Prior knowledge:
This protein has 441 residues and is α/β, with parallel strands linked by helices. The protein has 14 helices and 17 strands. Strands 1, 2, 3, 4, 5, 14, 15, 16 and 17 form a nine-stranded mixed β-sheet that branches. An eight-stranded parallel β-sheet has the order 6-7-8-9-10-11-12-13. The relative contact order is 0.16.
Amino acid sequence: VFDILLHSALMVTVDPAAGNIPGGALAIHGGTIEKVWQPAPGEALPEARETIDLAGNLLMPGLVNAHTHLPMTLFRGLADDLPLMSWLNEHIFPAEARHISPESAHLGARLACAEMLLSGTTTCCDGYFLASAVAAAVTEAGMRAVLGQGVIDFPAPGVSDPSRNVVHAVEFVDAWQARSPLLRPSIFCHSPYTCSARTLQAAKKAAANTGVLFQIHTAETRAEAEQCRAEHGCSPVRYLQRLGLLDEGTLLVHAVWLDGEDIHIVADSGAAIAHCPQSNMKLGSGVAPLPDFVAAGIAVGLGTDGCASNNDLDLFGEMDTAAKLHKVQRLNPTVMNAAEVVFMATQGGGRALGLGDCIGSLTPGKQADLIVIDLNQPHLTPLYHPASHLVYAATGADVRDVMVAGHWQVRNRRLLGMDVELLMQTAAAQGRMISSSGRPT
Ligand SMILES: [Zn+2]
């Protein structure tokens, strides 16, 4: 007897061997996908404790957000339309110094989890200071996550003495390494320009020793690439390579300003990339050479980045942008087709996070992380190609049900484990406090 049986769905497995399965069935036991198949007409379905008829719905793996800063939901819309450096130095870093505490980080992360689950994201890869507060929020929400403790060479929330930044990160990793099956700790260096070579190498070494993912914003803006060339005589990617930071345990975030040789270096190293098109557009950072990453065989996931630079966590919107941005930049509508983008938002993200065997497709043996999309809506009718609707027509609001590791977290567009009304009231009160303290000077 299975725990849960889902049937009669239009299944988008994102498993190349299985493809799309109309009228598909999926059986779950102990949080794991046990069986995926297309029942023959009249075939009796196996017994399960819970059987759900998903006729008229699309069933697919939960989306993977490969780059977030969850507590930044509290700064959504606080400072927009600014270049990265003045946005960071004049607005975001001061706001964080004033308003980010373990309590507010927890609140912001809870709000982020509510938004992500309701819009079909079941896994996120985060980097923030006070990662323990984020980890508590994510665990309470029942989401899967890779969570990086932030490392930066100046005083940050929770790390007043920057000389202890890597020590803090290692303490976080040790504390959360085996605490929850849904959570993997990680170490997140803010960037090559806010961390010294010594800090970067110490952080990477600590990540490698503990077997956790090392994340770093890299080559986000042209100014960063130029500064790196002036200071170190090479591109940011070559600088990281020279420091020994590139291997299959490293996730490069943004990777906008990479040349052909940089791309080869990343591909040969086995490092992965988190592509964040909306954040790169909003901050005017540039267009990452995504089609070249894919051609080089680099594992690429799709990320929203923090809410202050996007400004939402809806991966459906991000898929739409990722598919279109590269077409307009290359003046070629055939690049980044819908199926490739769906792959990136699921399997690609799983691979980039080192969770490729565990999530990202509806495949027997993988975790039962899945979402149900209500197809019975004007903007999704008629339907020819499921991937097309997922990328170009659907939004996060079309997600009806969400399951993580065999547990329903959203049913009929309602969160089961959280009081959203109360959460929004608390977040709004926090927002009033942030706004009454005025714009940072
Ligand atoms: Zn970021």
